[in-house]
Design a protein that fits this description.
The protein is an alpha+beta fold. The chain has 7 helices and 10 strands. The protein has a domain of about 220 residues: outer membrane lipoprotein receptor (LolB), chain A (Clam), CATH 2.50.20. Helices cover about 20% and strands about 30% of the residues.
Length: about 325
C-alpha cells in the first residue's frame, strides 16, 4: 500500500517542487445549462448563484474519497490590540465516510504515540466535526445536512448565495461564489464567505472568510487549497434481469414454425397404409416404428388389448383366405 503524505510532507513538496508535483483532481462533466445563461444583447455569461451553490453541494455529496492540503492564514483584529496572525498547514481527508483533519500538532501527537484510539461521546464527536469545519469550511459541503446553515460554526444566520461570476486567478479560470449570512446584505451581515471553484473539477481551491465575533473582534481566514485526490461514489452497474416468465413475454401473432396444433394420435398424423396393410417406416426416425390399428382405422392406445390381440397369430405358411364378397366382422 502506498504510504500517505502527511500535511508536513506535502508542505515540503509544495515548497521544494511546486504544486505540479502533487496529483490533481480529474475534470468531471458538469451540466452548466442548469446555472449558466448568456445576455442576449452583450453575450456576457451570467451564472445563477443559488443554482451553482446547489450544484457544488451535490458534487461534494458524491465524493467517496477525497484528500487535499491547505495553507490556512487566520487573522484576528480587535480594537486597541495588535492583530494576531496564525499560519499553518492542514490536510483534509474523506475516508470511509469520515472526515479527518490533520494538523502539525496532530502529526506530532501521532509520532509520539499520543493519539491512541478511544471511544468518544457524541458530544465530543460533534465538537470535533465543528472544529474541522471551522478550519476547513468547504468540508461542510460534504458532511453538513444543511450546508447553508452549518458552513460557518458560530454563525446563527443562514448563508445565501448572492453572486457567482467567472474570474481569473493566477491565469486560471475560476468561478467566484459569494455567500452572505442573513438576508444577503453585506453591510448587515455578520459573516461572509467567498469560494473560488475550479469549473473543471468543481472543487473549491480558495476560501476567503470574514466574521464578526461576539466580543466585537473581526476574524478573517484565508485557505489556499490544493486537491490531491478525489473519487466519486460508484454508479450502480446495470445488471441483466433474469429471463421473465412466458406470461410476461410479448405475444407474437405471426405464424409459428413447428408441428400442427392437432392431436398427435389423430388420423391426419397417421401415415397411410400400403396394400399390405403395413405402415411405412418413419423417414425421420432412423429406428423403424409401426402403429397397430384395428379395422376401424383408429390407432390403439398404448397398453390396451383388443380381441385381435387375444387371437393366436396366424401361421405364415397358411394365411387365412377370405372368400370373395365375404367380410370379416368383429365379435
Amino acid at each position: 500500500m502506498k504510504p500517505r503524505k502527511t500535511p508536513i510532507a506535502v508542505c515540503l513538496t509544495l515548497v521544494l517542487c511546486g504544486a505540479d508535483a502533487l496529483a490533481v483532481a480529474d475534470p468531471i462533466e458538469t451540466d452548466w445549462q442548469r446555472c449558466r445563461t448568456f445576455d442576449p444583447d452583450t453575450g456576457e455569461q451570467q451564472i445563477d448563484a443559488i443554482e451553482f451553490f446547489q450544484m457544488l453541494i451535490e458534487r461534494y455529496h458524491q465524493l467517496k474519497a477525497y484528500e487535499d492540503v491547505a495553507k490556512v492564514v487566520q487573522v484576528t483584529t480587535k480594537s486597541g490590540q495588535i492583530p494576531k496572525r496564525v499560519e499553518t498547514m492542514i490536510g483534509c481527508e474523506i475516508e470511509d465516510g469520515e472526515l479527518r483533519i490533520q494538523t502539525p500538532a496532530s502529526q506530532v501527537r501521532k509520532s509520539l504515540g499520543l493519539d491512541a484510539s478511544f471511544r468518544r461521546s457524541s458530544a465530543v464527536e460533534s465538537t470535533a466535526e465543528d472544529f474541522g469545519i471551522w478550519l476547513a469550511p468547504h468540508m461542510a459541503l460534504k458532511f453538513a445536512e444543511q450546508p447553508e446553515q452549518e458552513i460557518r460554526p458560530g454563525v446563527k444566520e443562514t448563508f445565501t448565495a448572492t453572486e457567482a461570476m467567472a474570474v481569473t486567478i493566477d491565469e486560471k479560470p475560476m468561478v467566484h461564489l459569494e455567500l452572505t449570512s442573513g438576508n444577503g446584505d453585506q453591510e448587515d451581515a455578520s459573516a461572509t464567505l467567498d469560494l473560488y471553484v475550479d469549473p473543471e473539477s468543481m472543487l473549491v481551491e480558495r476560501i476567503e472568510g470574514q466574521q464578526r465575533l461576539p466580543d466585537g473582534a473581526q476574524y478573517e481566514t484565508t485557505l489556499q487549497i490544493q486537491p490531491i485526490h478525489s473519487q466519486i461514489v460508484d454508479e450502480p452497474e446495470e445488471i441483466d434481469e433474469p429471463p421473465v416468465g412466458t406470461e410476461d413475454l410479448p405475444q407474437d401473432d405471426s405464424p409459428q414454425e413447428g408441428p400442427p396444433d392437432t392431436d398427435p394420435l389423430s388420423e391426419e398424423t397417421i401415415p397411410p397404409k400400403d396394400d399390405s396393410g403395413v405402415l411405412p417406416d418413419d423417414p425421420i426416425d432412423p429406428m423403424p416404428r409401426s402403429v397397430d390399428s384395428d379395422l376401424s382405422g383408429d390407432p390403439k392406445k398404448p397398453g390396451s388389448v383388443t380381441e385381435d390381440d387375444a387371437k393366436p397369430a396366424a401361421k405364415p405358411d397358411s394365411p387365412p383366405i377370405t372368400p370373395p364378397g365375404e367380410t370379416i366382422g368383429l365379435n
